[in-house]
Structure formats: C-alpha cells, structure tokens
Amino acid sequence: MLQNRTGDACHQDIISLEGVTFSYQQQRVITGLDFSVKERDFVGLIGSNGAGKTTLLRMIVGLLKPESGVIRLFGEPVSRFRAWERIGYVPQKNSFNPLFPATVREVVLSGLYGRNKMFRSIGKADQIKCEDALHAMNIEDLAGKRIGQLSGGQQQRVFLARALINNPSLLILDEPTVGIDTETQEGFFHMIKHMHQHHNITFLMVSHDMDMIRSYLGERPVAESGKLKFYKKHSHELQDCVENDLTHSLRGLRQQMESRKEVVAVVGDIG
Ligand SMILES: Nc1ncnc2c1ncn2[C@@H]1O[C@H](COP(=O)(O)OP(=O)(O)OP(=O)(O)O)[C@@H](O)[C@H]1O
Question: Keywords in UniProt for this one (predicted)?
Fold first, then answer.
C-alpha cells in the first residue's frame, strides 16, 4: 500500500457514509445511504431535480445533520472534524447582492478563515496564497472589484479561487458550471481533470452534465441510492502520495497553456 508523508495509507476513505438517512420535516430525502470516497477518487453525483444531491453535500460539510447514520471525513465523524482547511467547498448558486461590500480579494481570503475563525489577521504568506489562487483562476484583474458587481461566471471563478486557497485535499463542488458558457465549461472540466490526474486531490462533484460524467467517469454508476447515482474514477497516475503544491502547479499549467495560446480554454474565462 502506498504511503504519504505523514505515513497514512493512501486510498484511505476521505468521505464515508454509513446508513445515512435524512428528512426535511415529513419528507424523506435520503434513506440508508452507504458510500465511500477514497483518496484520489473523482466521484460524480447525478440525480434529477430534488433527488437530494445538495442535501447530501450539505450533510458532508456539516451544515445539516443526518437523521441517522454516520458521516466521516478523513476518518473523523463530521461533528468532531476540525481540519476544514483540507476541504474546498463550492456551494450551488453563490450569488451576491450587488450592494455586498466585499472585494474579490476579500472573498478569496475568507477561504483561509475557516469555521469559527472569522477575524484572524492576514499575513504576508496569506497574501501570497491569495495571489496564487487569483492567478490560478485568471482573475487577478478582478481582485479589487466588488464581488456583487461581477457576472455569474466571474463570481463562480472567485468562489473556486476561494475553495483553492488552502491547497485542499478534497474539493466538493455543487454544480460548479451552472451559468457558465459551454466553451468555458470545457476549460473548467479540463482543469479539474488535470487537478485530479496530476495532484493528490479527491473530488466529489454534483453535475447535470452527463456528457462530462460519462466521458470521464464511465457509462455506468458504481452505486445508486433512491434517485442518486454515483460515478467514479480513481487516479492511478501519481506514483507516490507526496503533497503537491496545487496553486504552484496550476500556475505551471497555465503558463504551459498560455504558451500554446489555449489558456482561455483551460483556466481562463470561466466567467
Ligand atoms: N430547506 C429545505 N426545507 C424543506 N425541504 C427542502 C429544503 N431543501 C431542500 N428541500 C427538499 O428536499 C428535496 C431535495 O432537495 P435538494 O436541494 O437536495 O435536491 P437536489 O438533488 O440538489 O436538486 P437540484 O438538482 O434541483 O439542485 C427537494 O424535494 C427539496 O424540495
């Protein structure tokens, strides 16, 4: 079994769900769900409107509590999990009131604060992480603008930069390309596939894009529960589990693509 720097076995469960059931008032949404996402998996979650996809992601990131069953993150029950900086989460439909006063830079930096740490001070190292994340998403030129004044697609890039700022091990994305044009969607999918294949990053992504799911994760779901379908691909490319500096590497990818004049299709113009 491969080992990472900290000596943990690779292919460990990053997310595990055991007998997870959830209801809103009288409406049962998820029943007895068992599933696991292992290190370096890319899991695509598909389901019709109202199937419970967002509800499941919100339980995984601790925003909703299951009625019964256990959810673990990196082996810890969610209720005891504290290492939220290891997880980048981009919720569905992030849209800001145009009057909201935060700048793009402030929104990206807020990804560093973590839960219950709203007012930590920002040091030089944090500023560099922020610049790297802005650069990776090709939004340096938007850094001083108010988030509420951006288009939906530009805002989505900001939220992705916010999710990337901590160099996360796990990215949880809830329909990340909604409202983004087709060409830019292709660039985005290219980028996250690169992150999956060349970095030690695990993905759980809700998407209605069956073409992307089938072409990358295969024709058949690996598990089904109610109306939820899980597709999965495991990345075998890395020969060891050493940590990768994601933003550094994304910068490299971007420079490489810039030199091939394909940057717009890869990491640029998600908005
Ligand atoms: N806060 C809430 N209170 C009550 N019911 C809710 C709440 N949020 C969602 N629901 C209901 O739970 C069900 C699952 O909703 P959820 O948002 O998880 O679905 P989804 O699979 O993400 O759908 P979509 O593809 O439309 O985003 C739906 O029937 C929805 O109406």
Answer: ATP-binding, Nucleotide-binding, Transport
